[in-house]
Specification:
74% helix
Length: 108
């Protein structure tokens, strides 16, 4: 049981890193000292979320996560994202989308 919990914690750590690099709390513009536009933020976020969902799918397939392990990953990831300072509505929306796009179903 402890080995499974360690594996889930490792997966959550990798997914947290993938999410924080995909959707930074304070997005920076590619231009010097200019605040990014809404369009820039939206494009970067969409692209980053696609990468995050692919990382989640890869973790699920690589580690052959069952239903309980998937639920543990989602719950722990939710706690870590909230602790990192992401707003609760965003975390809820992203995790729900992750569950539907990457964690539901079997193999592709």
């Amino acid at each position: 049981m402890a080995r499974a919990q360690g594996r889930v914690a490792d997966i959550c750590g990798r997914l947290l890193d993938a999410f924080t690099s995909a959707v930074p709390l304070h997005p920076e513009s590619t231009k010097v000292r200019k605040r990014p536009s809404e369009k820039e933020i939206a494009l970067a976020t969409e692209s980053g979320l696609k990468k995050f969902y692919e990382a989640a799918r890869a973790e699920r397939e690589q580690h052959r996560l069952g239903v309980i392990a998937r639920a543990r990953v989602a719950f722990i990831l939710q706690q870590r994202l909230l602790a990192a300072g992401y707003p609760a509505p965003l975390v809820k929306q992203v995790l729900f989308a992750m569950l539907l796009s990457a964690f539901v179903g079997g193999r592709r």
